[in-house]
Amino acid sequence: MPDPPSPALLSAAGVVKRFGHVQALRGAAFDAYAGEVVALIGDNGAGKSTLVKVLSGALRPDAGSMTLGGEPLDLRDPLDAQRLGIETVYQDLALAYDLDAAANLHLGRETLRRPPLGWLGMLDKDAMRAGAVEAFRSLRITLPDVTVPVRSLSGGQRQCVAVARAVAWATRVVFMDEPTAALGVVQRRQVLDVIRRVRDRGVAVVLISHNLPEVLAVADRVEVLRLGRRVARYASADASVKDLVRAMTGAVTTEDPP
Amino acid sequence: MTRPSVADIEPVGPAGQRGRLARLARTNVVWTLGVLVGLAAVFAALRPEAFAGPFNIRTIFINAAIPVVLAVGMTFVIITGGIDLSVGSVLVFSGVVAAKVMAANGAADADWTVIALGSVAGVAAGTGWGLVNGLLVTKGRIPPLIATLGTLGMALGLAQVATDGSDLGAPRRLTDVVGNHLIARQLPVLALVAAAVAVVFGWLLAATRFGRHTYAVGSNPEAARRVGIRVDRHLIRVYALSGLLAGVAGVLNLAKFSSTTIASHTEDNLSAIAGAVLGGTSLFGGSGTIAGTVVGVLIPVVVNDGLIILGVQQFWLFVAVGAVLVVAVFFDQLRRRLRDRD
């Protein structure tokens, strides 16, 4: 496994998380570098979701240390993470389906008119619409209309809206949980293209996926979790689906011995 | 995200002028307005001089004024996916509080300071009930239907306890200037107040962050929470807003009838809910407009007025409103099922 040249943008070590008697993470480590797509894979119950929740501020770890850009990282909630430029695309997308794409992109971070109307909370809808159009264009996402409710968009388009929202605000790290799970072939390719474009902006993209061929196709690196611990790291170019399966099932362990 | 200047953005085809027209045609308001105009045209054709004269048109707007104020608050609540059954009782309670304050300081001859004081007390009382509703729904985790059914009973009961069940009167000045006055001999003050409420709160819903978050909370509360919207706090504010407007309606009611009319508001929640739903607000939350609600309130008022002029027994109105409400919700549900199938 080649050593990446620069220090990791987001790094975690020795992360422990218990739920009652169940130990979901037992000293897990994880690294993500700026401008790469890193896939986080593992069998069901390996601790992927728990680790992502810890790294995105949704859960507080029982032990372990995290750094972002070399600085110690202590996240109290997901909003903390968002303030630091860490965004998450949830599997359920978390969109307000009755609002349009532009409104969803700015939800919770609305642009207000200049004072005095801004003091009354009046929205600057034109600026937000323009911002949304620009955000979609820069990712080459084509929507029929940014002003129709998200509900009337296709599954792939909704996924793109969720991704675009995360990416619009993520300056450093984006977590994407199974972003292509429910999509058809064409839509899947569209989302994967978007993921590559996000990486090209210098953001670290963390992809959680069960689809190993897809992981090898889109990710630059792969980190494998097993039983709450990192067991292997691969550069995608040097790994096969077989390697990944062997690491996931415990046939090989290349690092972090218990 | 850096905000691009508008000049950098090419207009993307459908979002331009055509999009605006398409958006308008998609809204229910246009269709509901068509129904209203159609009904008015039928009555006007049957009884031109009685129905379409200035006196009757004024009567329609005066009769719609208080239901509009209640239905505006109801629209906010329903958009969050909730319901407020307590509005009629809160109206009565607020009217009683206002009348008590005014009665204690000059009664029928009370001056404007007293009237203002009493009105503020009434509106504050309404807001208080709204806060109670909001706290029960959010912190108490009681379904809105039950929480507001409970406060419906409590507010009305307490109003009756406070008055021994007999109505209180209102100061003459309030009745003369707010209740019955016509500006320039044409424009009823009550209707102007209701119009102002509709415009201000319509703006709040359509153009501000508060309104945007109201839609978001009703559309997907979990999504709202994840982007940092404080959902419970927002819901409490929305129920408080509904209570506040019920308080305003209570003062207007006192001005209109010169009485607290304790026994006459059992169907107010029905007419407010029906107004919102007829105007396109979905009982499932996430969508609705104040413009639609105003039209939705006017429809039963016009039908009622027309039936009276035609000499039909007006008790049929409740049958009609109830039936139309059920049918409107049925079609809303059908529409949602069809849309969500893909």
From TrEMBL, chain B:
Subcellular locations according to the entry: Cell membrane
Pfam families noted in UniProt: BPD_transp_2
Predominant location category: membrane
InterPro entries recorded: ABC_transp_permease
Stretch forming the signal peptide: none
Domain of life assignment: Bacteria
GO MF terms, alphabetically ordered: transmembrane transporter activity
Protein name: Sugar ABC transporter permease
The species this protein was found in: Planosporangium mesophilum
Gene behind the chain: rbsC_4
